[in-house]
């Protein structure tokens, strides 16, 4: 294993978070069977004390899990110089392909943990804690995901060998190459631009309509659009947005934008995109919970705020992404 502060920190964090979540899942199984807020039994009082304390700890643990996703990206980028042939985080991931599975698990875990944190906040604002069974039941789903992520993380870092000659983004994200990355890089630019900017207009219009007409169907529509725009945006970053930031039509890597040479622009770009997607999803995810009387008012007040945050963050993402398209002399016009 490569002894690097980021690697050691990620492994220790993964074990600590997993330990807390496993205990939370164990308690969640008990809560699903025995939780009864109308009871004043000693067992119920003990459960209430445990869940209150554990909810606080779980909130911090999940915030740590979200932070670890960013540290994982930074570490991938920081150690790429160790590997022959690596020019960015892509080379590190290719040095041990298990890393791609870790990246996918990190993204899923990030969204899952963020949803749990908001559900916990909603639940704690109600006097009868109506979402206790739901949020602890979700831990039963999160525990195996984090267990898989931790196992993959150890496999990835323990399997890294500095003597391995790895391939980098020029091979993986080449329009003339093979594989999913190459296929996305080779997508026709002009139609994808229409999909990206047209989808942005539709998304912002749907958000505005949500603020003016509070209807369940519109909230579900916004959640669906936020997920669709995440996919379109990630494809656009690879196909043309990154090329504008690099000012090189053949460079499509979604990781090189995390480097100092490009002012670390990838970090605010991805943060705003995923945060916008999360808040957009929450508008629809929380809608069925409005049937619970004690949290209906809390959710009704939060949904417009989430909608505005999603629109603002997605707007910032588009500004960051499109900045060089507007203010630089570089163009992909000949590649449309």
TrEMBL record:
The chain crosses the membrane at residues 6-32, 52-74, 100-122, 134-154, 184-206, 218-244, 264-285, 306-326. The keyword Transmembrane helix applies. It comes from the Bacteria. Keywords: Membrane, Transmembrane, Transmembrane helix. This is Putative membrane protein. The lineage of its organism: Bacteria, Pseudomonadati, Pseudomonadota, Gammaproteobacteria, Chromatiales.
């Amino acid at each position: 294993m490569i002894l690097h502060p980021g690697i050691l920190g990620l492994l220790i964090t993964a074990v600590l978070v997993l330990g807390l979540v496993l205990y939370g899942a164990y308690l969640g199984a008990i809560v699903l069977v025995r939780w009864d807020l109308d009871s004043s039994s000693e067992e119920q009082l003990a459960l209430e004390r445990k869940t209150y304390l554990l909810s606080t700890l779980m909130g911090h643990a999940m915030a740590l899990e979200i932070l670890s996703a960013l540290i994982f990206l930074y570490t991938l980028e920081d150690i790429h110089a160790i590997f022959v042939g690596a020019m960015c985080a892509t080379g590190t991931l290719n040095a041990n392909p298990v890393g791609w599975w870790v990246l996918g698990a990190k993204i899923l875990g990030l969204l899952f943990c963020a949803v749990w944190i908001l559900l916990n906040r909603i639940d704690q604002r109600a006097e009868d804690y109506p979402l206790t069974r739901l949020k602890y039941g979700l831990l039963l789903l999160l525990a195996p995901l984090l267990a898989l992520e931790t196992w993959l993380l150890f496999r990835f870092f323990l399997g890294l060998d500095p003597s391995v000659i790895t391939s980098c983004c020029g091979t993986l994200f080449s329009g003339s190459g093979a594989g999913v990355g190459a296929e996305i890089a080779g997508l026709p630019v002009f139609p994808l631009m229409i999909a990206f900017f047209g989808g942005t207009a539709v998304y912002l219009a749907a958000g505005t309509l949500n603020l003016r007409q509070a209807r369940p169907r519109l909230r579900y529509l916004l959640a669906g659009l936020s997920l669709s725009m995440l996919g379109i945006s990630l494809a656009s970053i690879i196909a043309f947005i990154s090329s504008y930031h690099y000012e090189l039509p053949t460079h499509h890597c979604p990781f090189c934008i995390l480097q100092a040479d490009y002012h670390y622009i990838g970090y605010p770009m991805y943060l705003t995109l995923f945060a916008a997607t999360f808040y957009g999803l929450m508008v629809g995810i929380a809608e069925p919970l409005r049937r619970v009387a004690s949290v209906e008012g809390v959710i009704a007040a939060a949904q417009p705020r989430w909608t505005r945050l999603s629109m603002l963050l997605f707007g910032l993402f588009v500004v960051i992404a499109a900045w060089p398209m507007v203010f630089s002399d570089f163009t992909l016009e000949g590649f449309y």
